[in-house]
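B., you asked whether I could sanity-check this one before it goes into the benchmark set. Here's the sequence:
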Amino acid sequence: MDLQNKTAFITGGASGLGLATAKNFVASGARVFLYDLNKDALEKAAAELGTVAAWHSGDVSDEVAVAAALEKAKAAFGTIHINVNSAGIGGAARTVGKEGPMPLARFEHIVRVNLIGTFNVLRLCAEIMQLNEPQTNDQERGVIINVASIAAFDGQTGQAGYAASKGGIVAMTLPIARDLAKRGVRVMTVAPGVFETPLLAKAPDKVREPLIAITQFPKRLGYPEEFAEEVAHIVRCSYLNGETIRLDAGIRMPA
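And here's what the prediction gave me:
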């Protein structure tokens, strides 16, 4: 699917990987609707992107808020062709630590935002996409791209909740692609390694250098623009479906 004149609904779109994707899409002729919790960052990002961008603030796991955002997106741009789910949270805690077992509420919150939130958004976007006119000779009507993490495969100590949430995204990619095949909607997942997000950009060398050391090649953290290029490639390459792509320069995380 070509990005020209398409509309993308991007969660986590106010910063980091989501904003880089939005910028790439706009440069390719697309319209973007940004969804994020940070109102100030959303307003700033939309102003930078111009009239082809709109936004709504809310929680990805909130059905009512997401539905309201999608109605706003349809009012602004007509429909949704692409959904990129990059919203997510971290949260390290050992299963049993010095203060006892990991609070169940913490585990549940991580899974709710990262996994349930992703499914909540994509199912509502798919409902809209199925009504689109075919955009390619293959009768393609929409593309959904979820964001997991290498933690889905290499979860480190203290990452039980995060790894479970991202592993769930990987696991549901194929069944959802199968569910939506007859509706002309593709589903893919990207599992990023360690990227130059605003959080890591401020991290001291003692945090950054060990991560770079275990990266194979190139010996650096990933650029958000590289993530955006991969997402744009997935949109354009209609034969990509039902799969997870590691985008990590060959890094394998230790325990």
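One thing to flag: The longest strand covers residues 185-192. Otherwise nothing jumped out at me.
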